[in-house]
Amino acid sequence: MRVLFIEDEAAARSGLTALLASQGDIVDSAESCEAAEKAFRTTAYDLVILDIMLPAGQYECQRGLVMKDAGATLLDDLRRDSISGSKTKPDVPVVALTAIASTEIHERICRHHAVYLAVKPIDPEEVVQLIRSVIADGNAMPNNRTDTDAE
Q: Where are the chain's structural domains?
């Protein structure tokens, strides 16, 4: 499976990337929305793992926005198929990660059709299990779930 992991924290990126690669997945990583856009233009991904709370950078500034949840904007752009030249399909399954477990964030991400919203800190082994479950479930985007749904 070809995976793009978009995360601004280097330690989190390298840990999960190494774990997925050790299980035979091909994993690319991006530290920003700009890097993710470049990756989408060159590769068709089977799954995206996206940190929602990416820092604002050129991606947001080009739109006149100053936000700390640039990942949500990137997800919206991906779903609307507005990333020019993207080889990744707009309906690619997305596992969204966030450090903020608020209803507002949950609702915003569900509107963007993330398959699953996981609240940090995350256990890399659990994320791998989640990814396998998402793929096995057939990437059912309308059935948004969070790790807090069971609580």
A: 2-146
- Assess contact for 46 and 26: CB atoms under 8 A: no
Architecture in CATH of 2-146: 3-Layer(aba) Sandwich (3.40)
Which residues partner with 96 through β-bridges?
50, 117
pLDDT digits (tens, 9 = 90+) for 96-144: 888 876 777 777 777 766 667 788 888 888 888 888 888 887 654 433 3
pLDDT tens digits for 29-80?
Answer: 999 988 999 999 999 999 999 998 887 665 555 555 555 677 888 888 888 8
CA distance 64 to 1: 36
Give the single-character DSSP code of 89.
-
**Considering Cα of 10, then 16, then 21, then 27, what sign does the dihedral take?**
negative
**What is the number of other CB atoms lying within 10 angstroms of the CB of residue 119?**
17
pTM: 0.81
